[in-house]
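README: folding subset

This subset contains proteins for which both the sequence and a predicted structure token string are available. Records are stored as plain text. Below is the entry for Glycerol-3-phosphate dehydrogenase (285 residues), shown exactly as it appears on disk.
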Amino acid sequence: MGRAMEYLLQPRHTLTLWERRPAPGNPPVVLESAAAQQDVILFCLPANPHFDLATRLRAHRRRDGLCVSIAKGLDDQGRTAARALAQALGPEAPIAVLYGPMISEEIRAGRPAFAQAGAARAETFARLRDLFAGTALYLEHSTDIEGISWSAVLKNVYAILFGVADELGLGDNMRGYLATAAMHELERIVAGLGGAAGAAHRLAGLGDLITTATSKGSRHHELGRLLVRGETGALEGEGVHALKMVRAHRLFDSRHYALFDLIGQLLDKPATARDLMKNFLERLA
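--- output ---
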């Protein structure tokens, strides 16, 4: 997604790109020095390093420097990207998140993309709107940072199940059932984690679930297919890690959510995927 953001912003803004391992020929950038000069710092990397990097930046960034994340995962402490940034930078630091249907390849092909911009203050959203003005990324403001963060994180877990169902040849009817059942669970979980009512039914949740669960290029849909095929060495992604963190930190009791629990069983015992799905359907009868 970093390259997609670069594609959107490069024609209209002066960018400084920091990479942990610069590509050959690219001069290294000193993170702290670069941050001190930026109006906006865009975190286009997984959730796990957010806290450490933001901690490094805290004493160097401009007081009004806006930190924005597009990470749809949890770090090893079970924190969303927004929470990691807030804890590292302090309560007064302006932070925001962008979540929704934003397939990188489509953005770089000039196609439209859509995101909820999670920001506590209207002026923060106004800065984001100005940042992406004139691009094909359309923003919708939400002050419910917790709700859209958890919607974005957990929809990746559910998307895996769509790949499982498709690889097993369970058909379009099954996909329709999974969509409604997944949203029912997602709504309850997000509310339990502090999200506002209806948060899961907006772009960060339902919108991105539809995209992630049905797109041919979706990593999480492909993970479900790989699981059924027994290619377990490749079972890595934000959704897999998020499920592990939910368990490790007991963020909620997955036994109360049948689909979420099923996905955990599938990842634990991928060789029994067909039987697990069969048993699940039999229990619905």
